[in-house]
Amino acid sequence: MILKALYDYYQRCDNLPRYGMEFKEIGFLLVIDKDGKFIRFEDRRIDKKRAQQFLVKKSVSRSSNPKANYLYDNSAYVFGYSNKGEANDKRCFETFKACVESIHNVHSDNDDLKAIYSFYQNDRESIINELKQDQLWEEIEKNLNKKFSFFSFLIEGDAQIVAEKTHLILENDTNESFNEKICIISGTRSQIVETTSATMIPNSQATAKLVSFQIKSGYDSYGKSQGQNAPIGKEAEFAYTTALNHLLRPDSRNKFLIGNRTFVFWASSNNEAGQKSEDCLFNLFTFNDVLADNPDQGVEQVRKVFEAIYTGVLQTSLDDKFYILGLAPNSARIAVAYWAEIPLKDFAERIIRHFNDMQIFDDRKDKKPYMGLYAILSAVTLGGKVSDVTPNLPEATAKSIFEGIQYPYPLYSGCIRRIRAEQSLTITRVAIIKAYLNRLNNNEQKIKIMLDNQNTNQGYLCGRLFAVLDKIQQEANNQHSIKERYMNSASATPASVFSTILNLSSHHSDKLNEGRKIYFEKLKQEIIDKIDADGFPSHLDLQDQGRFFVGFYHQQKAFYTKEEQQNENNN
User: How confident is the model over 478-491, as pLDDT tens digits?
Assistant: First the structure.
């Protein structure tokens, strides 16, 4: 199912390399003249991690035996120099030199290949000595092990490297494949690959593959080995690996990272709904500070797009699906950690539900995003460091959004812990509590966006009352010592502290003018009348402690919000 979805994605994309080709980062070019004489190195790096991409023949799969790429490769192959030992360098160099000779024999009348062939009429030591005279040599030595440290040839005065010239590229060899069989992806008869291409994800080996079979390791069946166990045609294998590598490219907006997990996502259809859902979802699971002018714009765009899909403004069909693939690095292959195939309209509903569950009254002027994954995770860690988050929590949180299921308990408990430790009720933390509690399958009244005067939960009422007492002290003495000293106790064991802080509040009220004093007394009495006849609870469980903090937040915001606005937010 995964391979077929990737195969279909390749078929619908018109900007991916044709069969047998790939985009390859090549950091340095050897510029030579028509006679094969080396002129200079040309630096094609973009920054310290990336280089310009060129459309070249697909790279070969290597084992212990040297095998050259088509007119491009690393330094050991192109000019026989690396940090892996001279014996290895000589073998690789001779392999690449033989490859150039075989290509030249086919295109003996081509001037570009004549030049490269002439270049290799010199011995390895002479070539290296000449290259070392170039001013870029020191930079090249520093970057020999970088992923972009590939080399190719450019003829002086030409705009296109020789490896890009498709009319010089030979057809793929067929002697590396088994006989024709029915491909499990396309369902057609095709040459079957023996091994599949590598797919690089963060923290994995460069040779790691999504599909692989080891010989005599328990995977063989009925005398079949390697690719015969799951016959995949050459064209289908190229399609799904090319599609996956395209989704995983460094600048891809179809992927996001969570810990050591790499998630890629795509829509089955190339229609407007599919394209927009792909384009915007990236903003929900990555940092949004790149949108400096309007940091909330990215996350807000997610809401708008998926609301349009769910309501039918952006039309979809029953066949339109959304795919999410989670990959994890392993010692020799890539592990599938998560896979979801969801009808696009259902997926839109789940994203909208996340926004609705997390929605809480926001009176901040900057309106920074708080519903994105990184904002959520940073709210439950010390100093907001997402790297310090509990293992597996990011993945579990993402799954709860994808699948519309209960948010993970460690997210909720971590949020409560941070509030207690810092005594800081940020909008993100309150939103997490609201979202977690509202998804619980219990009989408790759902928490609203703004103050709910009809909510009779004892934890919520205690939070509201505590906010009133804190507000009285703030107006009377311009300080919040009640909050600083008693909030943790009041949220866990209300009966042990409320008699004390109610007495303190009476002294604070005496400093207010008559109008404010009457207002607060009525508000206190309205809340206390809803407390159980037995008095304040002796203990609040963790769920009601969360409701305490939401009640406190709601009541705090209500002091600065008109009643009409409160009703509008809750409706």
Answer: 888 888 899 999 99
